Amino acid sequence: MAETWIVLKFGGTSVAGRSQWETIAALADERRSQGFNVLLVCSAVAGVTNQLTALAINPDQAELLEPILEVHRTLGLDLGIDEQDWLGEAMQRMLLCLDNLRRETGPRLQAELLAMGEWLSTRIGCCFLNKSLDANWVDAREALEVAQETDLSPARRWLSAACVPGEAWWR
User: Fold this and answer.
1) 144-163 pLDDT, tens per residue?
2) In this structure, are residues 62 and 98 in contact, taking their beta carbons and an 8 Å threshold?
3) Closest listed residue to residue 59, CA positions, set 13, 20, 110
4) Separation of alpha carbons 94 and 99, rounded Å
5) Model's pTM, two decimal places?
């Protein structure tokens, strides 16, 4: 196994359809053949973060959820991914986020909902990649370690306080 890692980052338009995911697969396969371990970092599909932001601001307007799901249903169909591989868990997570936001507002809970854009694109994308590559999906919130810092700006201090090492703050 390779010891050197390479990170490939793809933005919203780069994860929006089959041809884009075929490019991602080809690039990952090429880097692997060059001896690298490959870490893919992918954004939410273009436009989804804006839709999730509207939903986070208006959690009682559940009808805002449908266009978000439709974008991902379309992507899944384009990639040949069965909805049962992602939709049930996605719905459960999003509805829990909305329930929490209805009871309590704030940046932490809004961020939890906004993170669903990346969750959706990466879960569906990983299913596609597994058709030709050996890919593993990892939730970044479980893989990253939070370290408390000193001398922070007020915004960074709030984020640091919200992320207590060893605790899953998004659940």
Assistant:
1) 876 767 777 877 766 666 55
2) yes
3) 110
4) 9
5) 0.84
